Amino acid sequence: MSSSPSGQDTLIRSALSAVDAAASRPSPANRFNIDREGPAKRAVKLRALQQQFQKLNEYCDEAAAEIRASLERSSG
């Protein structure tokens, strides 16, 4: 049996490399698969952060009010 001519070898190699390239890309289904839990999880985290910042802001307001009152007592 003789080996295939050079043109056929090149054609087969290019076809195999095209198949390899296609196999390494994500499928359309995977590429457009949307993580539906992601936004809900981020929303929960953002609400928790908002509550923490609100508590911190209230604490800072109270501390600033106490400092002002202390300064007014000491200067009065």
Cα end-to-end separation: 111 Å
Gross geometry: rod-shaped
Average pLDDT, rounded to a whole number, is 83
**Largest sheet data:** none
What is the CA-based Rg, rounded?
Answer: 34 Å
Beta-strand share of residues: under 5%
The structural class is mainly alpha
Order of helices and strands: HHH
Q: Could you estimate the helical fraction of the residues in percent?
A: over 70%
State the total count of DSSP E strands.
Answer: 0
SS summary, helix count: 3
Overview of the molecule:
The chain has 76 residues and is mainly alpha-helical. The chain has helices spanning 6-24, 28-31, 37-75. It starts with 5 loop residues before the first helix and ends with a helix.
Keywords:
76 residues; mainly alpha; 3 helices; 82% helix; 0% strand
